[in-house]
Amino acid sequence: MHKLTGSHLIDGQWRQERSSRTFDAIDPSTGATLPPVFFSAVGTEANSAAEAAKRAFDLSLDLPPKWSADLLDKIAANILDLGNALLERVEKETALPRARVTGERGRTVNQLKMFAGIAREGSWGDATIDTADPNRQPLPKPDLRRMLRARGPIAVFGASNFPLAFGVCGGDTASALAAGNSIVAKGHPSHPGTNELFASAVLDALQTLNLPIGLFNLVQGPGNEVGAALVNHPFIEAVGFTGSLRGGRALFDLAAKRDRPIPVFAEMGSVNPILLLRGALSENSATIANGLAQSILGGAGQFCTKPGVIFVPSSQVDDLSQAIVKALAAASELVMLNYGLRDNFCERCSHLSEIPGVKTIVKSNPTGHASISPGLYETDTEHFLSQLALREEAFGPAALLVKYENEADALRCIDAIGGSLTASLHIGKTDNPTIQKRALAHLESIAGRVIVNGFPTGVEVNDAVVHGGPYPATTDSNSTSVGSAAIRRFVRMVAFQNVPDELLPPALQNANPLQISRTINGQRTKANAE
Ligand code: NAP
Question: Of 24, 143, 359, 386, which sees the most CB atoms within 10 A?
């Protein structure tokens, strides 16, 4: 079993600069410092990690194509082998209950296995072949073969709110490795021991499979320095990020200002609007109120899909808010993931209550260490449109009810939100079908996932899911950070023209050695390409 060192994993070695600053892991439910002391990475460590990832990526080009499938399966098995040591460390560093931590570990392991399966099966690269026609007039047609190829070293920023499933071995790392990239992970400083345990699981997998040891590296530390150094490093080819709008946007801007800009796939803040139509509320008020409260409280409101803004017909807002308040009051103690998130949330709620036109229905208050009570606020469409701050995420257990007189006003507000991971619509039997259709179209225009008569929290990991959306939800509206399509971020299209068969990637060779489905001259087939 790995004993925590507080160091970074660089090229297979646990390392730290002697002069480094240090930081501590803190138990958010007691405020206690958790040993060991962790070293903050500096720029030189970011450089070494990026160089190791580049060397390993270059070496991996000579490996059999399915190396990443074996690696991902072995990482998944090793994570399970970490057993209670991992679960206990996550619990201490995050205050998440054991059931949630165990469930999230299951999701993380399944995600790794899903991407192992995708890498092993091999058709994710979308191999497409247009064969030559030397007799075409007026010019001969060349042989062209296109597929998706790995980009190279990827910088992955683990999230605070899903320490496992969006952590350093989460969906970004799994999807990037599956496509054949190498990784420099920047661990979230709020759970450094968890990050180090994950890195130990990857190190063992690389050693056991005799793979290039720098395929995965971990650097840790707060204060922006190491993250910025990574994004600026010339060997880094793309960035995966989950966190705040401010952080994601800063990294996106850094990447754009590089001599050679690179893509940043950042999943950031989201207000996840819910539009309740009149019929839906008349028919199902109790179910809707309870569902909303549970969705607001889930994970102490620290889900990126938490409903933040709820549009309610003004004649029904009082009954709904009373029912939600009752359900919120039944919540047990809500401990947030760290003091920083708790303080940000309190500040945001205080600001909310001071905005003109906002009524505080229930005030969110700190209740001890990193704990918080839930909050509920109310405004109208006019103020929602005029006050930009009402469209910002409050990351924690709070929501804003926006009362509307007519649906057109609510839809104008939804348009003003601009981008969100999800958007939900509640419809009843008596709601006008034309309004339903129009509402759905507006919600679709701003969101990556549209939900009818349901709640946005709870994200399936499968082929059809989209966890993305227009800016500010993400920096690339054509991407998802959850599900099998997440692999499409860390790749680029390459076309090979008149390249001899033996020099082509196996997925494009005539004999179809991977036995995958390909598109050949417009037909989907597993046949040879001769
Ligand atoms: P964060 O501040 O964005 O940090 C996430 C990661 O990015 C950390 O590793 C951080 O490293 C790095 N980072 C942030 N800004 C950077 C910069 N300018 N340069 C280099 N690295 C940078 O997110 P957080 O700590 O998880 O939470 C802060 C706030 O973000 C929350 O209060 C909440 O409002 C929001 N949030 C939203 C979501 C969501 O899914 N919607 C999830 C989590 C958080 P450093 O420690 O070095 O800064």
Answer: 143
